[in-house]
Amino acid sequence: MMLAALLLSALPATAQVRPMRTDEIPEPIRREGWLSEINAATAQRLRDGEWDHVIFYALQSQRFTTLAPIEPARSAKAFHDSSAIPPDAAKRLEAFFDAKPQAERYQRMRRMVQSLAQLRTEYQRAMSFLYEKEWASRARQGASRRDFIATLYQTRGHSTDTELRATYGVHIGLSLLPTPEKKIRRVLLIGPGLDWAPRTALKEDTPPQSYQPYALADSLIRLGLATPDSLTIDCIDINPRVIEHINAFAASPRRLSLLYAHGDADWNSYFDKLGDTAGRREGAIYTVHKAIAENIRALRMNLLTERLTETYDLAIATNVLLYFNDNELGLAFANIALALKPGGYLFHNDLRPAIEQWAQSLQLPAIHARTVRLDPSRELYDGVVLHQRSE
Predict the structure, then answer these.
(1) Rounded to two decimals, what is the model's pTM?
(2) Residues 352, 1: Cα–Cα separation, whole Å
(3) Which of 8, 144, 223, 355 could form a disulfide with 140 if both were Cys (CB 3.0 to 4.6 A apart)?
(4) pLDDT of residue 259
(5) HSE of 317 in the Cβ direction (CA atoms, 13 Å)?
(6) Is there a domain that residue 17 lies in?
(7) DSSP letters of 219-279?
(8) How confident is the chain (391 residues) per 10-residue block, as mean pLDDT?
């Protein structure tokens, strides 16, 4: 509670959070006690997500052992097929528990672990979900598989995973906005992310990074939608670790390491220019201007059960809505709609029909939807959806 109070006190007085009331729930899904149930479930999902990161780190990191890294999805299959923790995973869990390296990421995760038995239990929980997502889902095809995976995400632990390529879809979405008569000044970024310990491709040669707030500022300025002297970005997240990181960034060296991944001409152009307008770019290093970093703040908020008292010109929610079922989407869209000024925009990357239905009923209709290719080598695509709040 003290941490949350300190974080909130660092924000302008107008950026505050209050609990949502039952009478503010959209009438078709209104039910007494539901908000308390969601808060309890959110706490459990936050806890599970943090443990998922511990397990993925224990399987992949080279900071505490010389044992070969293990790809988590393959470990999940071996665990399922044998109904026991595979020997290579068991050795890594033991090494994680016994090691004493000074790496901050390791130390913060290790403090969560009370016993080796606890670590093994969390491995089994994490691998059970991962098997369903990566292997059991293959028994289905097309829309059936997508729906199955979507249902899994609606109960899984809340992850802070993020990667640089995810910022490209946001940039494309913003490029579709009409040039505003008035510049965008206030932006709400929902779930900014932090690359704490991703499920794949763990990289430890750089400290944990949150890309999206600073890539977003750069895109808005580059596209002529905002000016550096008037832009503020408020980030909201349920994870205090993410909040702490973003609120400490302005007092740090403010450097981001941009790891290049080959793409097509449009991606290459985006990557080569990233950081030039909101900071200084030297090779792979993006140093964010101090004034920009100081106007990017974060506060803890549950999008489903709480509301902001400030309003914004633009809201961004990528890889967030997939964690909510169709009824929870009604809560999320009700709260986002209230946080947007009339005529304000929402950008997200979820193409589910339920979103369109809630958006229409809450006066936040979609005005553009498309897909964008993120990775030509894997034919990886993302959604680009824009909504505008009715005047």
Answers:
(1) 0.92
(2) 36
(3) 144
(4) 80
(5) 26
(6) no
(7) HHHHTTS--TTT-EEEEEES-HHHHHHHHHHTTS--EEE-------HHHHHHHHHTTTTTE
(8) 38 72 94 96 97 97 95 97 98 96 90 97 97 95 89 92 88 87 93 90 87 97 95 97 96 91 82 95 95 96 95 95 95 96 94 92 91 70 88 80
Q: How many domains does the chain have?
A: 2
Phi, psi torsion values for 358, nearest 5 degrees:
-65, -40
Question: Domain ends where: 125, 153, 181?
Answer: 153
- Type and span of the H or E element at 300: strand 296-300
Q: What span, in angstroms and rounded, lies between the C-alpha atoms of 231 and 184?
A: 7
- Look at residue 346 in the predicted model and tell me its pLDDT: 96
CA distance 323 to 368: 22
Which residue bears the tokens 């902001």? 308
CA proximity to 279, closest of 291, 268, 267: 291
Token pair 């806890």 is found at 47
